[in-house]
Hints:
Number of strands of chain A: 6
Helix content of chain A: 25-40%
Strand content of chain B: 15-25%
Strand order of the largest sheet of chain B: 9-11-10-13-14-15
Radius of gyration of chain B: 21 Å
Oligomer: heterodimer
Helix content of chain B: 40-55%
Order of helices and strands of chain A: EHEEEEHEHHHH
Mean pLDDT of chain A: 93
Largest interface: A-B, 19 and 25 residues
CATH superfamily of the largest domain in chain B: Thiamin diphosphate (ThDP)-binding fold, Pyr/PP domains
Structural class of chain B: alpha/beta
CATH topology of chain A: Pyruvate-ferredoxin Oxidoreductase, domain 3
Number of helices of chain B: 13
Shape of chain A: globular
Number of helices of chain A: 6
Largest sheet of chain B: 6 strands, mixed
CATH class of chain A: Alpha Beta
CATH architecture of chain A: 3-Layer(aba) Sandwich
Distance between the termini of chain A: 19 Å
Distance between the termini of chain B: 52 Å
Shape of chain B: globular
Strand order of the largest sheet of chain A: 2-3-1-4-5-6
Mean pLDDT of chain B: 97
Structural class of chain A: alpha/beta
Strand content of chain A: 15-25%
Amino acid sequence: MKNTVEIRWHGRGGQGAKTAALLLADVAFKTGKHVQGFPEYGPERMGAPITAYNRISDDEITVHSNIYEPDYVVVVDETLLDSIDVTKGLKEDGAVIVNTKHTKDEIMRHLNGYKGAVYTVDARDISMKTLGKNYPNSPMLAATVAVSGVMGEEEFLSEMESSFQHKFAKKPEVIDGNMQALRLAFDIIKKH
Amino acid sequence: MAIRERLSGNEAVAYAIKQINPDVMPAFPITPSTEIPQYMANYIANGEIDTEFIHVESEHSAMSATVGASAAGARAVTATSSCGMALMWEELYVAASNRLPIVLALVNRALSGPININADHSDSMGARDSGWIQIYAESNQEVYDNYIQAFPIAENKNVHLPVMVCQDGFITSHGVENIMLIEDDKVKEFVGEYKPEHYLLNADERIAIGPYAVSNYYMETKRGQRQAMLDARAVILEVAEKFEKMTGRKYGFFEEYRMDDAEYAIVIIGSAAGTCKASIEHIRNTTGKKVGLIKVRVFRPFPEEEIARALANVKAVAIMDRSEMFAGTSGPLGAEVRAAMYQAHAKAEVVNYFYGLGGRDITVSDFERVYENLEKMAETHTVIGMYDYIGLRK
């Protein structure tokens, strides 16, 4: 892993792209990193395109600008692909991760000729199978960790388990499903 | 042992308020500072602190209630942003002229219009003449540290002035970063118990606060406020020194970053200073050019002589403003730094830039271009105009 990894998230208001960026900052922080997790606020309403960012580093981070040349881009909602140039500035030795049921080849037609790695994860399918509801956050977070290598799989899963135990202290029945969602997404990336 | 955490700037301020447990907090929500009273309401509801939270119907009432509580003898705080502070305007002057040591957490945001919720210094810069001490932060760590230092400054008997603790809207208020928190008992000890000398609810001493002052008295009152501002200078530095002993983190009127041998300097306030630091490291590592930064932390009182001294040996300076004052010439920081340099007979070429208005982003490469321009200015001894813009579409 490079010293500083920069990640840009694209989603729609209400889907939790901002929450996913904050969760990633959280889990990376727990493994000893310096982190930033921040949203870019435009008109804030359900369904409007939103962008969120992460910087993860071994050193102190002082930069307070948005990220224009990310190492990784995560697309939580594939309907954004036709209206937003999601791979703009994305480094060619980086990768884009798209939440979709479509194949990689189908998605690549919407990526303006991006030459780096493309990963597809059907986060809806994973979420429906494990949680019974469409919460694409957890699978996309796991896929991002798997692709970027900002931390190891075991480290990531054990930190997430302890934070789920804290977060869902009053409904422990959802912890297993969430953990399974993370593992499934991690496996999909490993098989890519 | 300090506590390693990751918090947003709003959470950091709310956490500091919790640690201090002030007597009264009247507040009205406004983006991007809303989370501060929201976190406070949680702490109070959970029984973690016993601050009296007053739900008011507007910011005018928020500051009025804060003034009332402080005059009564309570340690009183509030939080706001932008148009919220604009609605407090009348009371800001009342708080300062009555010498009430209120601490206001201000999350800097543009004033309307056009309507815009993003980072910009026009709210606090507009209030720069209200008699409040103003302290600005680059990061979540700094806003937390500044907030804790604000109380011993405001409540010092030689000062007795309200303090505005400012941070950049969204950039730090909603950005999660690493932070080192101080243990509760150390914060409590540092801030101390508030024991007002004169206050309205003292049955043994009957006083009036905020009476009518005809022209026979008004001018001396203003001179008294000036003296408090002058005396605040030493207190701000004493508190910073004590804070450094506790945490190891050093603060002053401003931070000098790579200024020892700097030939080209930027003067700036707030979160963009961190982005500027990254550009300095990049320029020095790749070209060896001697570039540096002065990040102004205390804007009121204004450290005029100290800034002029820090800029005495540079060849060119860019002073960067995140708010307009429509003089048609400089922005607020530009005008004051220029005046300081003129008074000190400084020889550097000076340009004033407007950047980041209404949250427009400023990047590492923007700062690199500023330093390139400074180099050209120093070589040719020409400055095109009093001011310019960064990131403005032409």
